[in-house]
From TrEMBL:
<protein>
    <submittedName>
        <fullName>NAD(P)-dependent dehydrogenase (Short-subunit alcohol dehydrogenase family)</fullName>
    </submittedName>
</protein>
<comment type="similarity">
    <text>Belongs to the short-chain dehydrogenases/reductases (SDR) family.</text>
</comment>
<dbReference type="InterPro" id="IPR020904">
    <property type="entry name" value="Sc_DH/Rdtase_CS"/>
</dbReference>
<dbReference type="InterPro" id="IPR002347">
    <property type="entry name" value="SDR_fam"/>
</dbReference>
<dbReference type="Pfam" id="PF13561">
    <property type="entry name" value="adh_short_C2"/>
</dbReference>
<dbReference type="InterPro" id="IPR036291">
    <property type="entry name" value="NAD(P)-bd_dom_sf"/>
</dbReference>
Length: 249
């Protein structure tokens, strides 16, 4: 098991992609820190990992608050001794016309998606550096960093910021043996996959909508110590949608 006893923190792990990541690293016998605003749902995920013989703790965390992030890192090191892998997955969107998007909406999305990602990466990196074992940081961006539907300004700006933040951190932290990469998911269905329509699948060059397991596999690739030549990259996992040119007929 490549991740056996590695300490992995996943933010936004109460549901969706983050939950799938926490469970997947748990199955790999990693020691998992399940972090989210919603502590009860975190506890359900952590309990599921422990019931299957794994190791996990849950920590109530608001990634908009530096004190909460410092507490998360402290809880992780108290429970498991260090931090090896930090997965910055927590994210929100506010889908409103730019004419109507309030300062509060804008600030909340930037604080959660971008500032939270930076602060979690930095606080985890401090431990990786201090313990001299290096580590791996994954930031979950989006294909909306590079293409848009209307009314997605704050989300697109935050996700574009994550892609830029990722290469900046990779260059700054490389000398501490810390690799920093991001993943840009396309459409990853976290709800009822069976309810998707044929057209939903067929518009993708890959012939299907994405599953949470597609992001799990991308994270495994990027956090595999064998892949230590990969840093600063943005791994697009979108079934080819950002490569598809569409004109009306
Ligand atoms: P989701 O909405 O199902 O889960 C997000 C989680 O983040 C929730 O559990 C929520 O409580 C948590 N969260 C929100 N604000 C937080 C805060 N301030 N502090 C801590 N936790 C907080 O989202 P989903 O679909 O699982 O997406 C996960 C990540 O992947 C997000 O960053 C999202 O932007 C990104 N993404 C998802 C895509 C998709 O198709 N599902 C596509 C592209 C990117």
């Amino acid at each position: 098991m490549k991740w056996k006893n590695k300490v992995v923190i996943v933010t936004g792990a109460a549901q969706g992609i983050g939950k799938a990541l926490a469970l997947a690293y748990g199955e790999q016998e990693a020691r998992v820190v399940v972090a989210d605003l919603h502590i009860e749902a975190c506890e359900v995920v952590a309990d599921a990992i422990c019931r299957d013989g794994g190791q996990a703790v849950s920590v109530a965390t608001d990634v908009r608050q530096i004190q909460a992030i410092e507490n998360l890192i402290q809880q992780a090191t108290e429970a498991f001794g260090t931090v090896d892998i930090m997965i910055n997955n927590a994210g929100i969107g506010r889908w409103k016309s730019p004419y109507e998007l309030s300062m509060e909406d804008w600030s909340d999305v930037i604080a959660t998606n971008l500032t939270g990602t930076f602060l979690c990466a930095r606080e985890a990196a401090k431990v990786m550096k201090a313990h001299k074992h290096g580590g791996s940081i994954i930031n979950i961006a989006s294909t909306r960093a590079i293409m848009s539907e209307p009314n997605s300004e704050a989300y697109a700006a935050a996700k574009g910021g994550i892609v830029a933040l990722t290469h900046a951190l990779a260059v700054s932290l490389g000398s501490d043996s810390i690799r920093v990469n991001c993943i840009s998911p396309g459409w990853i269905e976290t709800g009822d996959y069976e309810a998707l329509r044929v057209v939903d699948h067929e518009q993708h060059p890959a012939g299907r909508v994405g599953r949470v397991s597609d992001i799990v596999k991308a994270c495994f690739y990027l956090t595999d110590a064998d892949n230590d030549f990969v840093t600063g990259t943005n791994l697009v996992v979108d079934g080819g949608m950002t490569r598809r040119m569409i004109y009306e007929e």
